[in-house]
Amino acid sequence: MRLLQSADPALSPAELREALEGLSNSDFIRLRKIAAIYGRGTSLQPDDLVQEAIRRALDGTRTCPRGVALLAFLRNVMRSIVSAERGKQKIGLAPCSSDDAELVPAPGHDPEQALIHQEEEKEAENRLNAVLDLFRDDENALFVLMGDLDGLEAEEVRIMGEMDKTTYATVRRRIRRRIEREFAGGRNP
Amino acid sequence: MTSNRKSARTQLDRLAEALVDNILNASDEEILAEAGEDYGNAESAAAHMRGLIGNALAETDKAKMAAARAALGGRARAPSNIVRLPVQQKQAIFDRLIEGDPQLREKLTRAARKEDQLSERDLDSMLEALRELGVIDDEGKAG
């Protein structure tokens, strides 16, 4: 029986339950924080997002691969829940350049939906500017943030910014804490 | 200030991933200290989340129990053929069983030994149980 269980690529319901019940206090707090970040800009409250992710794991809608940390798995589940929530009004969009600089409605799609998407993009831009505005007087933080927005690797940003590891870690944490406090609990910026 | 190279939505998503990475990489001490700052009490904040997960587990258990009950109820409602036999036939089956198997006779309930006091319902119950045990088949013949 043990051999059969270890060959199973996903955690069994009993194993998942045991893993959930074994989470530490800090892990519970992490789940809440992660949910608050992913849920920002949606109607999903952090508690609801965490519960929905757990529910989908327990009912088998999502299975946790063996060897993947439980929090990493739940993170992925929460991300996909939010993505689906946003995708409810999403329409197909075709890039008009290889830079993905502008998006135009794909042929055959409803212009009204395209307008809704443009409005959503405008809202996202406002939220992004609100975040950047928090750090307008913090050069290191802005540098790291711009690296994040451009999709650069952390180490690359650290070296480009001429920060040692301790300084980089401090700046990274400062960014997160400022954003959490400013937009805590899923409140929109 | 906003980069125009990617949509704002994409940039916000990248930022979210970087923030979540930072949360997962933070030490337990840092996380608990932050919870103390944000909620006043890290223990109660963790307890709140633990309660949410407990609720999710309880809901899952309830759903499984309801599904099991529904399945069991479905099976229990399906009558076997033996209880549809005429009452005299069922009585004859019962008499044959207790006469032919002294051990079985001993195992039957006090009500079975006083079979003349059995209701048809009692008789059905025992014959059904014997059928499920494989002692008799659906027509009352020895299994």
Give the topology, please.
The complex is a heterodimer of chains A (189) and B (143).
Chain A: H1 2-7, H2 13-21, H3 25-39, H4 46-58, H5 70-87, E1 93-95, E2 103-105, H6 111-134, H7 139-149, H8 154-160, H9 165-182
Antiparallel strand pairs in A: 1-2
Chain B: H1 8-25, H2 28-39, H3 42-77, H4 87-100, H5 102-107, H6 110-113, H7 120-133
Helix pairs in contact in B: 2-3, 4-7
Description:
The complex is a heterodimer of chains A (189) and B (143). With 189 residues, chain A is mostly helical. Helices cover 64% and strands 3% of the residues of chain A. In chain A, strands 1-2 form a two-stranded antiparallel sheet. In chain A, helix 3 crosses helix 4 (46-58), helix 4 packs across helix 5 (70-87) and helix 7 packs across helix 9 (165-182). Chain A is globular. In chain B, helix 2 (28-39) crosses helix 3 and helix 4 (87-100) packs across helix 7 (120-133). Chains A and B meet through helix 2, helix 3, helix 4, helix 5 and helix 6 of A and helix 1, helix 2 and helix 3 of B.
Order of helices and strands of chain B: HHHHHHH
Task: Categorize the overall geometry of chain B.
Answer: rod-shaped
By DSSP (H or I, 4+ residues per run), the number of helices of chain B equals: 7
What overall geometry of chain A do the principal axes of the alpha carbons give? Answer: globular
Unreliable segments of 5+ consecutive residues of chain A: 1-5, 92-101
